[in-house]
Amino acid sequence: MMAKHTPAPYRPRSVYGYALYIGSNMVFFLYLVWAVVPDQFLHEKLGLTYWPLKYWAIALPIWVLTAVATFIFVIYPAMNMVMTPDIDDMRTIKDEYSLVQNGYVPGGIPPVSDIPIADVCRKLYLKPHINGYDNR
User: Fold this and answer.
1) SS3 category, 67
2) TM segments (predicted)?
């Protein structure tokens, strides 16, 4: 069966979701056992001789949260800044998705289009008395 492009559950997705749910609960339970139960009990009663140090029960989640926070607040914004074109690049003004205003009906609603950068600058930065332009 081909993968459907829908968020609705279908058979393979529900099976994988259930397996992931059960697996994640088992891993969390083992983590709690490792972090809370004393080493003597694990060794004497259960016969488990090797477990990582309890230090890692606290250190590992802190390292993961620090890595996620670093990604969210440093790396992701830096990637966006690198991918954004410079302010004087032509791609910030016009690209293949730009809509040019073709026609205008007097008294009507103008069609959807991009506003030319000259009109934006004139409206934002030009004072009304310069060159007789009315800035209303």
Assistant:
1) helix
2) 15-35, 55-76
Between 116 and 62, name the one with better pLDDT: 62
Nearest-angstrom CA–CA distance, 7 and 20 = 17
Report the candidate in 10, 9, 14 with the shortest Cα–Cα distance to residue 1: 10
Cβ atoms of 108 and 116 closer than 8 Å: no
Per-domain residue ranges of the chain: 11-83, 87-136
For the stretch 37-78, pLDDT in tens is 998 888 888 888 888 889 999 999 999 999 999 999 999 999
Task: Give residue 131's pLDDT.
Answer: 56
d(CA 118, CA 102): 17
Give percent above pLDDT 70 in the chain: 90
Q: SS3 of 50, please? A: coil
* All residues at 6 or more sequence positions from 17 whose CB lies less than 8 Å from its CB, including other chains: 9
Task: Assess contact for 113 and 99: CB atoms under 8 A.
Answer: yes
Q: Is the pTM of this model over 0.70?
A: no
Task: Identify which of 125, 104, 106 has the alpha carbon closest to the alpha carbon of residue 135.
Answer: 125
